[in-house]
Amino acid sequence: MPRVTSSMSVEEIKAVIFQLPAPQILDLADAIQERAETLGMMQLAETGFREWNEEGEDIYDDEA
């Protein structure tokens, strides 16, 4: 997913979002919740791969 940078503050983003119709706000809230859960799971999963960063475990870096 590409990174998007914005010069808008959080308060400005909220002001724009709150102008949306209620169903769109609810859809957006669901999408944000899903993204937050995905990010949380990705952070947890990273801890399971730390041993791959140990010296001698470079077999995972080999290209086929």
Which properties best describe this structure?
mainly alpha; 64 residues; 2 helices; 52% helix; 0% strand
Q: How would you describe what is shown here?
A:
The protein is mostly helical and 64 residues long. The protein has a domain of 25 residues. Helices cover 52% and strands 0% of the residues. The protein contains 2 helices and no strands. The protein is elongated. It starts with 9 loop residues before the first helix and ends in an 18-residue tail after the last helix. The relative contact order is 0.06. The mean pLDDT is 83.
Helix content: 40-55%
Q: What's the story with the biggest beta sheet? A: none
According to DSSP, the number of beta strands is: 0
Please work out how many helical segments DSSP would assign. Answer: 2
Separation of the first and last Cα atoms: 26 Å
Which structural class should the secondary elements be placed in? Answer: mainly alpha
Percent strand: under 5%
Task: Extract low-pLDDT stretches.
Answer: none
Shape: elongated
Average pLDDT across residues? 83
Order of helices and strands: HH
- Could you tell me the radius of gyration in angstroms? 19 Å
Q: Would you summarize the structure shown here?
A:
The chain is 52% helix and 0% strand. It contains two helices and no strands. The two termini are 26 Å apart.
